[in-house]
């Protein structure tokens, strides 16, 4: 059974293959360190998530991107990210195949050429990522077929049992992030969430 832990304890658990549930700006996340492949496999088992289903990464800064992706951004995309990051926007970009995180990326991308990245707008999540020194593999903290919780108080008992620690807190939005594919031309919206299509079109008029 997971216990309530401090931020410092959560980081120690993440460094040693642990699974942590924490609040984010969108919905509560169940998370593992990208540098811990066994923890990523455990996260997939907990979520009953097929290994061929990609999982996004939470990063602490736009400066973290070069270690994960060789992408270069157009002026339009830079303006979009300046406005929407940190926040509820996940971008799909090409992944690196020569990264220090290759094992973790192989798992979260299932060998695919792309990876999802987001900078969360939540002080606790950002502090965890920065203290950990690694991106977080993060998925909504719900079991398959169940709604994503808006606070750690709403977690399913089974998830509490399977995780290693919980950082208490409430999510800012309670709505999943919007996902856009920057590898598509024109840029394509894959999931509408916190940011609506009309909001994104202010920056990307040709958004598909």
TrEMBL record:
GO molecular function: ATP binding; double-stranded RNA binding; L-threonylcarbamoyladenylate synthase; tRNA binding
The enzyme's E.C. designation: 2.7.7.87
Reactions catalysed: L-threonine + hydrogencarbonate + ATP = L-threonylcarbamoyladenylate + diphosphate + H2O
YrdC-like domain span: 4-195
GO biological process terms on file: regulation of translational fidelity; tRNA processing
Superkingdom assignment: Bacteria
Coiled coil feature spans: none
Major localization class: cytoplasm
Location in or out of the cell: Cytoplasm
Root EC class: transferase
Keyword list, A-Z: ATP-binding, Cytoplasm, Nucleotide-binding, Nucleotidyltransferase, Transferase, tRNA processing
Cellular component annotations (GO), alphabetically ordered: cytoplasm
Xref: Pfam families: Sua5_yciO_yrdC
InterPro entries recorded: DHBP_synth_RibB-like_a/b_dom (IPR017945), Sua5-like_dom (IPR006070), TC-AMP_synthase_SUA5 (IPR050156)
NCBIfam families for the chain: L-threonylcarbamoyladenylate synthase
Family from the record: Belongs to the SUA5 family.
Protein name per UniProt: L-threonylcarbamoyladenylate synthase
Organism: Candidatus Wirthbacteria bacterium CG2_30_54_11
Upper taxonomic lineage: Bacteria, Candidatus Wirthbacteria
């Amino acid at each position: 059974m997971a216990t309530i832990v401090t931020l410092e304890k959560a980081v120690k658990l993440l460094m040693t293959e642990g699974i942590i549930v924490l609040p984010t700006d969108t919905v509560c996340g169940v998370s593992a360190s990208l540098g811990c492949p066994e923890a990523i496999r455990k996260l997939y088992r907990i979520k009953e998530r097929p290994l061929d289903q990609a999982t996004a990464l939470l990063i602490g800064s736009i400066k973290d991107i070069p270690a994960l992706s060789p992408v270069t951004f157009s002026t339009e995309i830079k303006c979009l990210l300046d406005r929407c990051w940190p926040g509820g926007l996940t971008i799909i970009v090409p992944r690196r195949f020569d990264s220090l995180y290759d094992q973790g990326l192989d798992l979260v991308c299932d060998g695919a050429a792309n990876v999802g990245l987001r900078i969360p707008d939540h002080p606790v999540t950002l502090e965890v990522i920065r203290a950990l020194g690694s991106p977080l593999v993060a998925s909504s903290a719900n079991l398959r077929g169940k709604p994503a919780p808006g606070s750690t108080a709403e977690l399913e008992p089974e998830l509490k049992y399977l995780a290693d620690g919980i950082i208490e807190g409430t999510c800012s939005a309670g709505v999943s992030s919007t996902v856009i594919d920057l590898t598509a031309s024109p840029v394509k919206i894959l999931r509408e969430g916190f940011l609506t299509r009309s909001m994104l079109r202010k920056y990307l008029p040709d958004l598909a």
